[in-house]
TrEMBL record:
Protein name: LysR family transcriptional regulator
Pfam entry (one): HTH_1
InterPro entries xref list: LysR_HTH_N (IPR000847), LysR_subst-bd (IPR005119), WH-like_DNA-bd_sf (IPR036388), WH_DNA-bd_sf (IPR036390)
Keyword annotations: DNA-binding, Transcription, Transcription regulation
Top-rank taxon, per record: Bacteria
Organism for this UniProt entry: Streptomyces chartreusis
GO cellular component terms listed in the entry, alphabetical order: protein-DNA complex
Similarity field: Belongs to the LysR transcriptional regulatory family.
């Protein structure tokens, strides 16, 4: 069956959904506002549904039908881009553009090898990465705004396939002069009554849950979304903290020493994964990223 709409019309539709306005979409696509509006109306006429609600001075919003169709529109555009890349590439070359989401707390450990080691292997592939909260990354994967996303396994939920790229075990950090700093390992019960300096992001809030699962109550002294504030307060002896990712430095931002110790309790490991929508067919460029992290996991 011959399609009655064009890829350019789909591109305009997706651009309006992303920009929230016809003017923003026109600027992003290098087109006129009148041209974008005409293309959207023509697309709606061919599909027989209204895709957008246009409000004067308030931009444009997806209708119920538009919300249902936006992910498929993105995938059609990605498929067309992949076909173009395949047609112009040699057997060993990966080209085009790939969008990848990364949960903010994983970004320092996963984005550098992605934009350096991986990108150097595939110089013809443009890698675009955005950092967001876990829920936003999951939503972006499911509605087609990105092809791949880095998350913690327990943040993914249903509807995603993934490979594990990194597994870590939570541990404690203390000031160098903390009374427990000389021990080889420390139980949660030994620190539960002490002030907890908590990294205030969803994945790190598991510190309080970890204590609760052990029948203990967290004595939260301070919450911060800045990891260096957490480490700085711990280094000054204000409290302890529970971390997931291994930080490469054993000193705070101020240069004060920090001691890391294993948790003696039987606690679950945390797995970082590279995820994509289940039952979706990975593009050649997405397969290249998956294979890279499968064969070269970050240290």
């Amino acid at each position: 069956m011959t399609s009655r709409f064009t890829l350019r019309q789909l591109e305009f539709f997706v651009a309006v959904a992303d920009a929230g306005s016809v003017s923003g979409a026109a600027e992003a696509c290098g087109a006129s506002q009148a041209g974008v509006s005409l293309a959207i109306r023509d697309l709606e006429r061919h599909l027989g549904v209204q895709l957008l609600v246009r409000r004067r001075a308030k931009g444009a919003a997806l209708t119920e039908a538009g919300s249902k169709m936006i992910a498929d529109a993105r995938r059609l555009l990605e498929g067309a881009d992949a076909l173009q890349s395949l047609a112009s590439a040699t057997d060993s070359r990966v080209s085009g553009t790939i969008s990848i989401g990364c949960y903010v707390t994983l970004a320092p450990f996963l984005i550098p090898p992605l934009l350096d080691d991986f990108a150097s292997r595939h110089p013809d592939l443009e890698v675009r990465v955005f950092e967001e909260a876990a829920g936003e990354i999951r939503d972006a994967l499911l509605d087609g705004r990105c092809e791949l996303g880095f998350l913690y396994a327990n943040d993914g939920g249903s509807g995603l396939d993934s490979i594990t790229v990194q597994t870590t075990r939570p541990y404690l950090i203390l000031s160098a002069d903390h009374p427990l700093a000389t021990q080889d390992q420390i139980s949660l019960a030994e620190v539960a009554d002490s002030p907890l300096i908590m990294f205030d992001v969803p994945s790190a809030r598991n510190a309080a849950k970890m204590l609760a699962d052990a029948g203990l109550t967290a004595n939260i002294r301070h919450l911060s979304q800045n990891i260096e504030v957490v480490r700085g307060l711990v280094a000054r002896g204000i409290g302890y903290s529970i971390m997931v990712q291994q930080w490469p430095s054993d000193t705070s931002f101020e240069g004060r020493p920090i001691v890391s110790r294993p948790i003696a309790d039987d606690i679950p490991e945390r797995s970082a994964v590279l995820a994509w929508p289940e039952r979706s067919r990975l593009t050649r460029r997405a397969k290249a990223v998956v294979e890279f992290f499968r064969s070269c996991p970050p240290r």
